[in-house]
Amino acid sequence: MDYGIQLYSIRDLAKESFEEAVATAARLGYASIEFAGFFGRTPAQVNQAMDDAGIRIIGTHSGWGELANDYENTLRFHKEIGNKHYTIPGADLSTPEKLRDFVEFLNYMTPKLAAEGIELAYHNHAREFILNDFGVRTHDVLANETKVNFEIDTYWAFVGGEDPVKVLDKYAHRMSLIHLKDGNAAGKGKALGEGEAPLSEIVAAAKRLGLYMIVESETQDPDGPSEIGRCIDWLKING
Rounded to whole angstroms, how far apart are CA atoms 98 and 53? Predict the structure, then answer.
């Protein structure tokens, strides 16, 4: 199988050397990379790092403010690096007003990016699946009131009390990428195979539904490269 890696998993190395982080991901066996920031690199430098490492881009985690406040430059950057999946990694949706504004933004931006060949998606944490302070489940609002795609983080869905496989089945028509992650039910992350998430069932469902799996393992135990190395080792046996 062909797996991606979320760069945030090796942010410790990326802060020291973006290029070495990209190369390390490829060397460990990941076929694609989902960027989480570019550490001051230009599109040409990002492309060079990928070319040198022999790894391709699968998407990015990028803020919605970048699109709202600097659309033209943001669009140009992402097109120059060949990004087809612009995923918002989370948002402050803690009040009805903030949620309403975000829904309006998504309804404006989703078709605008689609016309440029870029899929806009939203990445969940546990909180989107839990009843919030004003009595709604944020994920339900995003699903019902927008047409944004989802990058389901299967671990955070699990922490939020959901069956990740059922979530994948429910929203498969609105996603192409998912996050594969492990940890305990209380929200403490672990490398793949070291936690309590139902990984084997998730992997089987992703294959059945044709969803591309991106590893995100973010506790850097004892460091990012070591942790994602254990993840790819688990996938080689269980993926």
Answer: 41
